[in-house]
Recover the amino acids of this structure.
């Protein structure tokens, strides 16, 4: 029996129960766990039967037992990441995640992180034993050659590797670990093909948030959580009303930006003129961060190596983001207040823009900025509610622009050290400052039900702490893991909570926690 424990994108952890024994997966098996005799194939004591998938891509042969799917058509000598991804996506699309996937002969330890990342559950130690018997030792830096027999050490290396992958999947940091261990060119091929050719499948399984992002390479630009954010800013974001002057400024290492030394100095220098401008931070891999979104994920949760130099891919990403952002959001004046390492933005030729160098060693920088803002000041004064601007922007980023008419009817109150969006005196959404997100209160569940947004339908029971996959009937297609959701049974609201599976699995997976209930 398979007990799914945690999904992260295409990967998962859990337990495989065989008789009285319980095994954690991802799982390492040995030669003793596999037998092939008289055209019969057994894995972990289970007999496999030949099966096939026939779809638009033709026929795919595989072996299936009670708990395993074995695909042996991929030659280890002619290993092709592209063919591998094609096979795995066909298996998952047709057979789901009810059984453990094993592909014999490809368990190279320097491929295992990438293989696990794309959905392989079971690995063998045959390569580890064979190479070890010939004097090859596995290390975290690659293979080394010696004289002794390293077969046992290599098997332990694979076990420890799987332990690391299992724990990183469960704590939400799998992407960082896989990228760190990506020291073979085949692993890099797998990840790049995944992001280029299978992005839609990858994205629908990728969680909405993780504990954090270490953007250590340009590959981070293609992470689904980064792409989602940048797509929202580029294609959907709507600036606050009465924002007439756009002020583009650099990011800071400290998050949220406004608590950094440089940004606090800027805010103090702006003084009364701060009401005249809309502050937008320029960074990478998150391209543009309007001030009111600085606490959300991912802007408040990423870290990058700072070198003072920008790669062309980052520059192109910023150029594209700026062009789309300013095309959708019109300002009377655009001011770029940036340090020397970002003067490349002057080459973008943004209409109606002013460029002022932010030289931290010169007190004149702030004076030039204030003079530029003051020269555009008019006698017409606009009222700005910064807190409401923030709540509306967070809500639209988190749920979509459909929620704007509802937010406009709400009021903000401060209660129990939390900001709440209320309607008719009832709390609808509650802002979590630590996570930079809005939680759905049960009083607001009907709004989501009426709009058919972020809804999970369950069988006829009253949920308590967790809802397991077997109790889920259906879900709306906007749900990703870690989303705020409303739970109902045939339209009858049963509570609110957090999705622990994406729409692609809700109503399809049979094992594992699907929703963590709140009330």
């Amino acid at each position: 029996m398979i007990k799914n424990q945690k999904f992260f994108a295409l990967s998962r952890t859990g337990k495989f129960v065989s008789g009285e024994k319980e095994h954690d997966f991802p799982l390492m098996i040995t030669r003793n766990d596999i037998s092939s005799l008289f055209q019969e194939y057994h894995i972990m004591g289970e007999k496999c039967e030949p099966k096939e998938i026939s779809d638009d891509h033709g026929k795919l042969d595989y072996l299936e037992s009670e708990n395993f799917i074995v695909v042996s058509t991929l030659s280890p000598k002619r290993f092709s990441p592209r063919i591998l991804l094609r096979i795995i996506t066909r298996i998952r699309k047709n057979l789901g995640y009810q059984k453990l996937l094993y592909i014999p002969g490809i368990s190279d330890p320097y491929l295992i992180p990438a293989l696990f990342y794309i959905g392989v559950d079971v690995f063998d130690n045959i390569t580890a034993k064979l190479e070890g018997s010939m004097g090859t030792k596995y290390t975290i830096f690659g293979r080394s050659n010696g004289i002794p027999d390293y077969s046992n050490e290599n098997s332990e290396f694979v076990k420890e590797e799987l332990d690391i992958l299992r724990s990183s999947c469960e704590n939400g940091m799998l992407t960082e670990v896989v990228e760190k261990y990506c020291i073979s060119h085949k692993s890099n091929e797998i990840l790049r093909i995944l992001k280029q050719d299978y992005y839609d499948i990858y994205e629908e399984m990728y969680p909405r948030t993780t504990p954090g992002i270490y953007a250590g390479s340009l590959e981070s630009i293609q992470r689904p959580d980064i792409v989602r954010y940048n797509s929202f800013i580029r294609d959907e974001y709507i600036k606050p009303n009465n924002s007439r002057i756009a002020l583009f400024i650099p990011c800071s290492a400290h998050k949220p930006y406004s608590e950094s030394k440089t940004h606090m100095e800027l805010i103090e220098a702006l003084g009364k003129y701060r009401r005249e401008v809309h502050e937008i931070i320029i960074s990478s891999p998150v391209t543009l961060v309007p001030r009111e979104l600085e606490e959300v994920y991912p802007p408040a949760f990423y870290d990058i190596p700072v070198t003072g130099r920008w790669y062309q891919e980052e520059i192109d990403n910023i150029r594209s983001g700026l062009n789309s952002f300013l095309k959708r959001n019109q300002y009377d004046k655009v001011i770029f207040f940036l340090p020397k390492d970002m003067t490349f933005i002057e080459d973008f030729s943004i209409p109606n823009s002013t460029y002022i160098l932010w030289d931290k060693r010169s007190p004149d920088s702030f004076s030039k900025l204030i003079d530029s803002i003051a020269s555009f000041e008019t006698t017409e004064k606009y009222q700005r509610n910064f807190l409401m601007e923030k709540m509306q922007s967070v809500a639209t980023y988190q749920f979509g622009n459909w929620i704007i008419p509802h937010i406009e009817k709400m009021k903000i109150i401060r209660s129990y050290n939390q900001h709440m969006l209320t309607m008719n005196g009832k709390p609808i959404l509650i802002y979590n400052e630590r996570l930079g997100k809005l939680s759905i209160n049960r009083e607001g569940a009907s709004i989501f039900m009426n709009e058919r947004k972020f809804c999970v339908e369950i069988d006829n029971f009253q949920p308590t702490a967790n809802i397991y996959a077997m109790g889920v009937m259906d879900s709306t297609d906007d749900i990703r893991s870690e989303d705020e959701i409303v739970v109902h049974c045939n339209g009858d609201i049963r509570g609110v909570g957090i999705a622990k599976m994406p729409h692609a699995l809700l109503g399809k997976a049979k094992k594992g926690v699907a929703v963590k209930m709140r009330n």
Notes: The first strand starts at residue 2 and ends at 8. Residues 63 and 82 are 21 Å apart (CA to CA). The mean pLDDT is 92. The radius of gyration is 26 Å.
